[in-house]
Amino acid sequence: MSAVYALKFTGLPHVPIWLMAMMSGVFSMLITWRLLPTWWRAVLLVLPLAALLSLSINSWWWLFAAILLMAFQWNAIFTRIPLYRSDAMVAQALVDYMRRDQQKSLLDLGCGDGRLLWRMAQALPECTFVGIESAPVLYAISRWRCRNQPNCRIWFGDFWRRSWAESDVVFAFLSPEPMLPVWRKRLREGEKHAVLISLAFTVPGIEAGELLPAHQFDMHLYQADHHAVVGKEISDDEFSR
C-alpha cells in the first residue's frame, strides 16, 4: 500500500492516480480469485482506492471502520479464527451427506451469519441444527436469519465451553490452528460413531476417512470409530486449551 501513497505525491505521466489505484485493486483481486473466500474480492478491489482517499479522509471514519471490522471479525482478533462464509454448494454437500448416512443433527462451530444453517434447516426439516457464535453482531444476524426455522437454534458464546455430545455431526470451517484440539474434544465427547467434518482444513496427523467435494475446497470427514486409537495417541497435555 506504500506504493499508492508514493504515487499520490510523485504521480506518473499520462496516468491518473485514481486509475492506478483501480488497476492495482483489480490486479490484486484477480490473482487471489481462487485462493481466498469470495468476500475478500471486494476488499482487495477497493483497498487501494481506500488508501488513496485516506490521505484526505476524516479520522472519525477510521474509527468507524475499526469498530465495524471488530464487529464482524471478533473471532479473528481474539481467537485467531477469521470469519469464513460457506457457500450454497457446501450446504448442499452437507445435506446430501446427512441424507446418505441418515444423520439427524448437526452442530456448526462458529456459525457466522447463519446462512449455512438456514439453508440446511430448510432442506432437512426433519433434522436438528445448532450453531454457536461468539461475535455479537454475527450472532444477532444468525438469530434473525433463522428465526422462522423451528429446527434451528443459535447459541451465543465460546464453542469450547459447550458440549458437542448431542450432535451426530460437528461441522467446522475455522483455521488450521485449532483443528487438532477440535478433533480431540470431538473424540472425548462424541458417541462411538461421532463425525467431524472440516471444510478446507485438515486435522494434523490424522487421515480423513472420506473427502466430500464442495466447490472450491474439499470437506474432510473424520469418524470416531475409525480414528479413535490414532487420535488418543496424542497427549492431552500437548494440545490442551
Architecture overview:
By secondary structure, this protein is an alpha/beta fold. The chain has 2 domains: 2-57, no CATH class; 88-232, Vaccinia Virus protein VP39 (Rossmann fold), CATH 3.40.50. 46% of the residues lie in helices and 15% in strands. It contains 10 helices and 7 strands. The chain has helices at 2-10, 17-31, 39-53, 59-72, 74-78, 88-101, 115-123, 136-145, 179-189, 224-232; strands at 105-109, 128-133, 152-156, 169-172, 195-199, 210-214, 217-223. The protein has a 7-stranded mixed beta sheet, sandwiched between helices. Strand 2 (128-133), helix 8 (136-145) and strand 3 form a beta-alpha-beta unit.
In brief:
The chain is built from ten helices and seven strands. The protein is of the alpha/beta class and 241 residues long.
